[in-house]
Amino acid sequence: MQMSVGAPLGVFDSGLGGLTVVKALRVSLPQESIAYFGDTARLPYGTKSPATVYQFTRQCLRFLMSLRPKLLVVACNTASALALAELRGEFEVPIVGVLEPGAKAAVEVTREKKGGGGKRGGLIATEATIASNAYPAAIRRLDPQVQVIGRACPLLVPMIEEGREPTDVIVGLVLREYLTPFLELDISTLILGCTHYPLFADAIAQTLGAGGGGVKLIDSAKQTALVVREQLDTMNARSTSSGAPPTRPPLTCYVTDQGQRFERLASRFLGESVGQPVWVTPEMLEL
Amino acid sequence: MQMSVGAPLGVFDSGLGGLTVVKALRVSLPQESIAYFGDTARLPYGTKSPATVYQFTRQCLRFLMSLRPKLLVVACNTASALALAELRGEFEVPIVGVLEPGAKAAVEVTREKKGGGGKRGGLIATEATIASNAYPAAIRRLDPQVQVIGRACPLLVPMIEEGREPTDVIVGLVLREYLTPFLELDISTLILGCTHYPLFADAIAQTLGAGGGGVKLIDSAKQTALVVREQLDTMNARSTSSGAPPTRPPLTCYVTDQGQRFERLASRFLGESVGQPVWVTPEMLEL
Question: Global pTM?
């Protein structure tokens, strides 16, 4: 396949969370246009089985491929954990997931830290990501001495999508419940293993700070944007500005569910408003 | 189509919640065999648009029709609210939803109550059910004098599926937040407009009892089972016991997602364990 430097980055997520990765990409790679696909009709993936997540992810990536992207980003931790390894060979462009960049950053930070338990990291994620064991496996490949302790946090995504503020009393109690075990385990890092979680990053840091002292949070979104930039450099495929003042390259969103919900919630994740998304029904996706 | 008295009841839900309706059917109609379909790969429906809920519900009912049921039950409030009216003409067997039985019971109880605001009822449900306005419309058709005040409660389903007990501190706080507005509105009934909610019925009653005094909860599951029984009587289609001791008629579950999650959670809704469900991938459903 002929690769065009002006082609978009294809970014996939089960719904809204991947927009935190888009936000990081817009900072890190401001010249790139982005086609974002959110499978909003079938979200969430975090409670689904590997077989289903694989099938849905494959369909969505095939749709993105029809837009002739130069690179695909799987901006969903659950899809990265459950489906990416199997999908990698299927497409003619490189695929960057969010799991390996997060795992790599966690290993680096854990190594740097001195004293205490030292080589122990925490992970919060969806039920499916935790059950997959993909993060501990990726980290073990990078450094067998780093231990990872994971915990599913099923209420965080619905609380964020409900619009609760990080300062909400109920958010505080839920975070305390989910994070207390980590306080006793002397972790040096905590991976935010779901693209929704950066919206609660400050509240998570505060909860850990109460007794954890200096736990470093790993936000996969930023790490992933850096890996995408490196990958484009390797391919010599960065878009370049053409004339001043530069026009902001487009972000086009495709969603499988109709309705205003995506548009309404998107700005919380992206930090800016998205335009009207394009509706692609699940029936239009190839099997 | 030839209708067989021995044919199963076809019960549809987006996932697990409809099992509370199955539980009520097993009590009310112990001689009936049941085919249950849970669209676990694409749940929840409660945050999705009418177009998507219609399309998914139609596919699932078409699958159930291939099992030659004598009657269909849409045991999902969101699907009943968003899709049932349009779907009714499409199938050759009667379809009973959960919305009208609940609305009817709410109107009856509201009428009986004396004094106070009297003719005012409350409704808790998913975002999509509330947005559809289907409950207020159904109630207005039955009695234009009964007012309904609705509120979406997005955290209740994930808290129930997470396995939280009704006595959990966080459950108590969330219920207080969601229900406090109703305490000030002098309601006489509260419709549990989502089939998950009966699992928290006692905690909901307790929260309302603190200041609400005698608010009657409407559990659509039980009301729906009564309507199904009446409908079968009208059709002269009740299964009859054949010899003693009667064998328990089968409950067969079909789900669109693979994995143990359905089986693991099902007993909380059904009050008994379900067998291994049959896996029907979404791709196998006709468009």
Answer: 0.95
